[in-house]
Amino acid sequence: MTRLHKFLFISSLMAVSPLLYAAGPAVLPGHPLVGTWTWTLFGGSCTETFQYRQNNVMLGTSGQEVVEKTYAVSALPDGQGFYRLVETVLRQNDKKDCSGTLLDGPGDESTRFVQFSPARDKLLMCQSASLAACFGPLKRSD
Hints:
1 helix, mainly beta, 14% helix, single chain, globular, Lipocalin
Protein backbone atom coordinates (compact mmCIF):
# COMPACT_ATOMS: atom_id res chain seq x y z
CA MET A 1 0.00 0.00 0.00
CA THR A 2 1.47 3.34 -1.02
CA ARG A 3 1.60 6.38 1.23
CA LEU A 4 -1.16 7.99 -0.81
CA HIS A 5 -3.42 4.97 -0.35
CA LYS A 6 -2.73 4.90 3.39
CA PHE A 7 -3.41 8.62 3.64
CA LEU A 8 -6.72 8.29 1.77
CA PHE A 9 -7.76 5.30 3.87
CA ILE A 10 -7.00 7.05 7.18
CA SER A 11 -8.68 10.25 5.97
CA SER A 12 -11.79 8.27 5.06
CA LEU A 13 -11.91 6.67 8.50
CA MET A 14 -11.52 10.04 10.18
CA ALA A 15 -14.33 11.51 8.08
CA VAL A 16 -16.71 8.65 8.85
CA SER A 17 -15.94 8.15 12.56
CA PRO A 18 -18.07 11.08 13.82
CA LEU A 19 -21.05 9.63 11.93
CA LEU A 20 -20.52 6.21 13.50
CA TYR A 21 -20.22 7.75 16.95
CA ALA A 22 -23.43 9.74 16.47
CA ALA A 23 -25.30 6.54 15.60
CA GLY A 24 -24.94 5.36 19.21
CA PRO A 25 -23.56 2.19 20.73
CA ALA A 26 -22.82 -0.79 18.55
CA VAL A 27 -25.65 -3.26 17.99
CA LEU A 28 -25.14 -6.82 19.23
CA PRO A 29 -23.46 -8.91 16.54
CA GLY A 30 -25.74 -11.12 14.52
CA HIS A 31 -29.49 -11.32 14.71
CA PRO A 32 -31.48 -8.83 16.84
CA LEU A 33 -32.84 -11.75 18.89
CA VAL A 34 -29.37 -12.58 20.23
CA GLY A 35 -29.12 -11.44 23.83
CA THR A 36 -30.96 -11.76 27.13
CA TRP A 37 -34.66 -10.90 27.41
CA THR A 38 -36.82 -10.75 30.56
CA TRP A 39 -40.52 -10.50 31.27
CA THR A 40 -42.09 -10.12 34.70
CA LEU A 41 -45.68 -11.24 35.10
CA PHE A 42 -48.35 -11.99 37.69
CA GLY A 43 -47.91 -8.69 39.51
CA GLY A 44 -44.14 -9.10 39.71
CA SER A 45 -44.27 -12.51 41.36
CA CYS A 46 -42.62 -14.39 38.49
CA THR A 47 -39.96 -13.53 35.92
CA GLU A 48 -39.07 -15.30 32.71
CA THR A 49 -35.58 -14.91 31.25
CA PHE A 50 -34.51 -16.07 27.81
CA GLN A 51 -30.88 -15.93 26.73
CA TYR A 52 -30.53 -16.39 22.96
CA ARG A 53 -26.90 -17.14 22.15
CA GLN A 54 -25.04 -16.73 18.84
CA ASN A 55 -24.67 -20.53 18.59
CA ASN A 56 -28.48 -21.01 18.23
CA VAL A 57 -28.91 -22.24 21.80
CA MET A 58 -31.42 -20.62 24.15
CA LEU A 59 -31.23 -20.93 27.92
CA GLY A 60 -34.41 -20.05 29.75
CA THR A 61 -35.87 -19.81 33.22
CA SER A 62 -39.53 -19.36 34.11
CA GLY A 63 -40.69 -19.92 37.68
CA GLN A 64 -38.95 -23.15 38.73
CA GLU A 65 -38.43 -24.28 35.14
CA VAL A 66 -34.95 -24.28 33.60
CA VAL A 67 -34.70 -25.19 29.93
CA GLU A 68 -32.14 -25.43 27.15
CA LYS A 69 -33.39 -25.27 23.57
CA THR A 70 -32.00 -24.96 20.10
CA TYR A 71 -33.57 -22.29 17.96
CA ALA A 72 -33.81 -21.18 14.35
CA VAL A 73 -35.03 -17.69 13.52
CA SER A 74 -35.69 -16.08 10.14
CA ALA A 75 -32.99 -13.68 9.02
CA LEU A 76 -35.50 -11.00 8.02
CA PRO A 77 -39.01 -10.13 9.19
CA ASP A 78 -42.09 -10.72 7.07
CA GLY A 79 -44.18 -7.86 5.68
CA GLN A 80 -45.80 -7.23 9.09
CA GLY A 81 -42.44 -7.19 10.92
CA PHE A 82 -42.58 -10.71 12.40
CA TYR A 83 -39.59 -13.05 12.63
CA ARG A 84 -40.43 -16.76 12.61
CA LEU A 85 -38.82 -18.52 15.60
CA VAL A 86 -38.71 -22.32 15.92
CA GLU A 87 -37.44 -23.73 19.23
CA THR A 88 -36.72 -27.36 20.12
CA VAL A 89 -36.26 -28.55 23.71
CA LEU A 90 -32.86 -30.17 24.39
CA ARG A 91 -33.05 -30.45 28.18
CA GLN A 92 -35.35 -29.29 30.94
CA ASN A 93 -35.71 -29.89 34.66
CA ASP A 94 -39.38 -31.07 34.76
CA LYS A 95 -40.43 -28.13 36.97
CA LYS A 96 -43.40 -25.81 36.43
CA ASP A 97 -43.04 -22.48 34.63
CA CYS A 98 -44.62 -19.17 35.68
CA SER A 99 -48.01 -20.23 34.33
CA GLY A 100 -47.89 -23.55 36.19
CA THR A 101 -47.34 -25.76 33.15
CA LEU A 102 -44.64 -28.30 32.29
CA LEU A 103 -42.82 -28.68 28.98
CA ASP A 104 -43.38 -31.92 27.09
CA GLY A 105 -39.66 -32.68 27.17
CA PRO A 106 -36.70 -33.19 24.85
CA GLY A 107 -37.62 -33.00 21.18
CA ASP A 108 -40.73 -30.86 21.78
CA GLU A 109 -40.85 -28.19 19.07
CA SER A 110 -42.72 -24.88 19.15
CA THR A 111 -43.07 -22.09 16.61
CA ARG A 112 -43.53 -18.48 17.65
CA PHE A 113 -43.44 -15.17 15.85
CA VAL A 114 -41.33 -12.34 17.27
CA GLN A 115 -41.82 -8.63 16.69
CA PHE A 116 -39.32 -6.03 17.94
CA SER A 117 -39.94 -2.46 19.07
CA PRO A 118 -38.40 0.18 16.78
CA ALA A 119 -35.45 0.55 19.19
CA ARG A 120 -35.12 -3.27 19.36
CA ASP A 121 -35.01 -3.09 23.14
CA LYS A 122 -38.37 -4.87 23.57
CA LEU A 123 -40.09 -7.74 21.82
CA LEU A 124 -43.42 -9.52 21.69
CA MET A 125 -43.75 -13.30 21.26
CA CYS A 126 -46.87 -14.33 19.39
CA GLN A 127 -48.59 -17.61 18.48
CA SER A 128 -48.97 -16.51 14.86
CA ALA A 129 -47.80 -13.62 12.68
CA SER A 130 -50.47 -11.45 14.29
CA LEU A 131 -50.84 -9.38 17.45
CA ALA A 132 -53.98 -11.34 18.41
CA ALA A 133 -52.25 -13.78 20.84
CA CYS A 134 -48.93 -12.53 22.20
CA PHE A 135 -47.07 -12.20 25.47
CA GLY A 136 -44.65 -9.55 26.60
CA PRO A 137 -43.17 -7.16 26.06
CA LEU A 138 -39.92 -8.79 26.97
CA LYS A 139 -37.16 -6.27 27.68
CA ARG A 140 -33.54 -6.58 26.64
CA SER A 141 -31.52 -6.96 29.82
CA ASP A 142 -27.96 -7.30 28.54
